[in-house]
Amino acid sequence: MNQKLILFIHGLGGRGEETWQHNSSGFLDLIKNDENLSTQYDVGYYEYPTTLFRIPFFSQAPKIQTLSDGLRTQINNLYSSYTSIVLVCHSLGGLIARQYLVEEIQNNKVLRIEKLLLYAVPNNGAQLASIAKFITWRHNQLSQLCKKSAFIKTLNEEWARLNVEEQIDIKYIVAGIDAVVQEKSAKSFWGNQRVETIVDKGHINLVKPTSNDDLSFVLLKNFIDQTRSNVITFDLSHGQENWDSYKEFIDGFSEEKLEVKSDLLNERSQIDRSSVMFFAPPFESQILDREAEYIKTWVYEGGGLFLMGYYAADTHHGGNPSRIAREFGYSFGDDLVAPNDINKNKIRVHVNVLDDKYAVKLEVEDIDHAITKDVNKIGFISSCTINTDFGSRELVLTLNSPSNSRIWDPEGPIGPKEYKRRTIHTWNVRETASVPLLIAFEYGKGRVVLSSSWKITTLKYGDNPQLVKNIVGWLSNTD
């Protein structure tokens, strides 16, 4: 049994597996025959009572809220052993899933739903449902599906208020010739960037793929397949392009890369398939809790994270790289590590240049590790300490500064509002000590390297370029 589950939820008048099949073919067979998906996911179905029409005096169709409760019961009992679940929904099934997610978040539950795929879901109601309610008798589900129904209005209000879109990965699929759900309703809201359209599909055959190159299946596979490629992700969504020379380093990177510039969580589908993520400290931007939690999960499932700090890490230019570091038991210090011969008058120069005469220099030729292979001399500049205030993990490599290095503490007021940016008036020497400048450890199936400065990527000293190359190789699990 795999640790992940694809749970299919059919629509109005549908049935468990039948909805997703075309004759003898369909999603189940295509998933089973896909080498990557079959080794990652098991498949399940949520089936519930539903009909297109209701005969008077026969039992009523359960309301969507009741169907959502049933979904919760099934997930909590039949599927309790799965660590991650993908909900794949058709039509009404998408509203059931959305109602379930809203209630889970309202009740502060830990979500095991990793992704949500919505095929032709009437997120703003369906026009045909508004007509059908007049020709079928007291049909609860059709009434709630109507445009401007109280249920649709409340669901969308809570969905927006709780920021559900930012907590899980979602994809909306539109059928180009859908006669049941209008395009605007399937897209959910104007300007939605998470939408794909299959122009030659209708409401029913949208979820009945006939081959592995059928777009309905290809979209599912691309959305949930977490088989990693050699793509290197660079997070630029937190202003990192503003660090001097960092973008030049990225532009010169020869390997296949993904630059995330707008919203980190909106790019999860692509990031999930990349092998390494470079995360330089934010520049006048804050890492959100849900972003840090996502990165932690991404590493646990096999990703390689290169997380970099900077001097006065969490008060310099209002960034907070420690928000991610704390997920693994570490933090970056609000300080500066400098060579012993740097005095207070040279500190300001030290933090603004890429001159190796201001760098803390290490000799590493006696360390036997993939990260230090063919590496003899490296330099760190504008570094902070790496602290283990929150407990630490078993390290596979630690590179310490020379014992005569100095640690300096900034002095000056920290600004109010959302960014804790410090105005540094002066620096005060704290101690002379050897401290970690780079550490590496394994976490779950993944790996992490913490660097005390992002300038390890741009300082052209000794074997720094080889060190960065080795870090990428180790994080990619190719050592």
From TrEMBL:
Alphabetical keyword list: Endoplasmic reticulum, Membrane
Localization: Endoplasmic reticulum; Membrane
Domain of life assignment: Bacteria
Main localization (coarse): endoplasmic reticulum
Protein name, UniProt field: PGAP1-like protein
Organism: Fodinibius salicampi
